[in-house]
Design a protein that fits this description.
This protein is mainly α. Helices cover 64% and strands 4% of the residues. The chain is built from 20 helices and four strands. It has a two-stranded antiparallel sheet. A two-stranded antiparallel sheet has the order 3-4. A hairpin with a 2-residue loop joins strand 1 and strand 2. Helix 8 packs antiparallel against helix 11 and helix 15 packs antiparallel against helix 16. It starts with 7 loop residues before the first helix and ends in a 9-residue tail after the last helix. The relative contact order is 0.12.
Length: 478
Amino acid sequence: MKNTYESPLASRYASDEMLYIFSPDKKFSTWRRLWIALARAEKELGLTQITDEMIAEMEAHVDDINYDVAAEEEKRLRHDVMAHVHAYGAQCPKAKGIIHLGATSCYVGDNTDIIIMREGLMLIRSKVVRVLAALAQFADTYKAMPTLGFTHFQAAQMVTVGKRATLWMNELLMDLSELNFRIEHMQLLGSKGTTGTQASFMELFAGDTDKIKDMEKKIAAEMGFDSVVPVSGQTYSRKVDAAIVSTLSGIAQSASKFATDIRLLCHLKEVEEPFEKNQIGSSAMPYKRNPMRCERICSLARYVIADAANPAVTAATQWFERTLDDSANKRICIPEAFLAVDAILNIYLNVASGLIVHPKVIEKHIMAELPFMASENIMMDAVLRGGDRQELHEEIRLMSLEAGKNVKERGLENNLIDLISENPKFGMSREELMVHMKPEAYIGRCPQQVEEFLEYCVKPAIAPYADELSKEATALKV
């Protein structure tokens, strides 16, 4: 249908996997699973009005959700949870009287949100791991290839192409650690009642506190969790949402840093993102190879970073045990953060797996700057030949200024080596000076740093996810 708005996150960017996690089918089937878990726990703990037949009837209709009935009920009741309680009851006539027994809306709403967000984080983690693996291969391949390092985007000491990739990876390792922490520490809300006191369950179980605690343990176990939050109002603390979207924002930040570096390298024509045979870089300029994938990463990342303010403000402005001003905002900002980061990582993996390196351009840029970088070594060599260090330092300073003027004002090549060879105070021929013009002599421990980082940091971090590494990359929609 083309006559109504649709989110580009769904139609253009996010994967089918992530779209399913935040789909109505996933949400409402999880509501039903939670109602079944509640009924089963209540029955096992002594509520005789709940029977196996009722539970079996509920289990038979977990996935065939009667949306039309739910929609009509919501128009009538103006309450989405009760609309689905009635819709489920219409399919389960024997069980309809015990569905949602003792619970409040947040029993299904909040517990489902936690379940869905955990699954979303696990999918995100899978993709972060695959990006790390792709970058690890790239870093290892280019661990010893010299390239200009930059500070302030001015040529500085040299690094290697592979060493630079470890900087991107190190930030993703930080994100992976954060993801693991969030996933491992997520807890269900459990069954806390309207203000978190469990008063309704005290009534159902005649004040038996142990049964209420056992009920929550049973529900948590059935839904795949080790624990529930120890205390709450009607909802789990909205700081949970703020922390999760902050984690997603951190991934967006890391990806944007990578994509920005690639965009700058693309401008230098040293490294480029993949460019397909029939891809058009510009509608007006046929020769262009715009880094559109990395630009898209930066664009989506900016959205996620800004979106992280939403749950933070929501967490800060909740009143006492419950207000509903979180709901509409939460329905938008949480799924969109997940969908956007999912899209970012799909693109990140695509780019990281197909980076194009141009060694000749890199070498050209090195050689234009190397005479300046080699000046200290040349000066030391001249001192060993009998020269005066302070005098030679001043001579190199003056000649460097002249060579810089030659490049910047006259558009000529860097002629510092020629100037030094012609200066009798150095007493060195051009051939002797060129010994110092080997880029690999200026990369320090870059190759070893890459090897050590891959062996001791990356491999152990991604090893637990071997199955994820075997999965195919998600095809980009556009």
